[in-house]
Design goal:
Blueprint (H helix, E strand, L loop, with lengths): L25 H5 L27 E3 L3 E5 L5 E3 L15 E3 L9 E3 L2 E12 L3 E9 L31 H12 L4 E7 L2 E6 L3 H8 L7 E5 L4 H14 L3 E8 L2 E6 L5 H10 L4 E5 L1 E3 L2
Parallel strand pairs: 4-7, 9-10, 12-13
Antiparallel strand pairs: 1-6, 1-14, 2-3, 2-6, 5-6, 6-7, 8-9, 11-12
Keywords: Signal
Length: 284
């Protein structure tokens, strides 16, 4: 599956996600340094897209990077460039204290990972609580369910033709299939989704892969989702990241959604196509 760069809000940095390869981890697929993108991000946010602001206290959805380049602490809700010191941007934070643990400092920049609670007025986050990563229980966070196999009993035809090199060749062949939508791995099972001729696709892939294989049909191709994703990136003013991590689905994270952004994307792109999540969530 191919993931595309996002349009970021003014205080956010850009993200480019990697296409799926046989040797990529899920984290590698989700985020890399945007400098390699090579594609200019343009577009005008839709005047109809809502930009809700939370009324009460909110907390970050897990740990976020807090960075002070010398002008005051900022909360980085988008991607963080993997430089030293790191680079990122976000809304200014008031009421934040670094404390004695949880941060690094280099070249006049101070940064660390924190779980924050406070209020957000659309521009500034006022912190009432800050837990450094060293004291934060990541096990308490909800864990995302991995994408399962596309069939109940993946068939194996030739165990000798199931090497890592065979897997790489098969994933490359999958991306060239007519109606290609996406591909993913569950253990050593290759899962491929196409919009047409699943039997023909399986026959083609068996030329290079004898291990467990599942081929299924879906509604939208990879190109279809990419086109919709580009529209989405330009439309949502508070979009942080977006991409396709499952067949026939786009995932979009925004700064905050009270339900109105989800309603808007459902009305604009069709119910169930875009799943909206928030970087900031109400505490109650």
């Amino acid at each position: 599956m191919t993931l595309r760069p996002v349009i970021a809000a003014p205080f956010l940095v850009l993200l480019l996600a990697l296409p799926l390869t046989a040797c990529s981890t899920e984290d590698e697929m989700r985020a890399v340094d945007p400098a390699a993108a090579g594609e200019p991000l343009t577009g005008t946010p839709s005047p109809d897209a809502p930009t809700p602001v939370p009324e009460g206290r909110v907390r970050t959805n897990g740990l976020v990077t807090v960075l002070d380049p010398g002008t005051g602490p900022q909360m980085c809700l988008g991607a963080v460039a993997e430089s030293y010191p790191p680079q990122c941007g976000g809304p200014a934070i008031e009421g934040f204290e670094w404390g004695e643990v949880g941060f690094e400092e280099a070249a006049g920049v101070k940064w660390g990972s924190y779980a924050l609670t406070g209020t957000f007025d659309g521009t500034t986050f006022t912190a009432t609580d800050a837990i450094p990563a060293a004291l934060y229980d990541t096990m308490a966070e909800p864990q995302e369910e991995p994408l399962g196999a596309a069939c109940e009993t993946p068939a194996t035809t030739d165990t000798a033709k199931a090497t890592p090199e065979d897997m790489d060749a098969t994933l490359a062949a999958a991306s060239a299939l007519p109606g290609y939508a996406t591909a993913w791995l569950t253990g050593n099972t290759i899962n491929v989704a196409v919009t047409e001729d699943a039997a023909g696709a399986e026959s083609t892939l068996r030329a290079t892969w004898g291990g467990p294989l599942c081929v299924t049909t879906v509604e939208r191709t990879d190109a279809d989702l990419n086109a919709i994703n580009q529209e989405l990136q330009a439309a949502l003013p508070t979009l942080l990241t977006s991409g396709s991590f499952a067949p026939d689905t786009l995932d979009a994270q925004v700064v905050f959604d009270d339900g109105s952004i989800q309603e808007w994307v459902d009305a604009t792109y069709g119910e169930g196509l875009v799943r909206v999540s928030s970087a900031l969530t109400p505490t109650d």
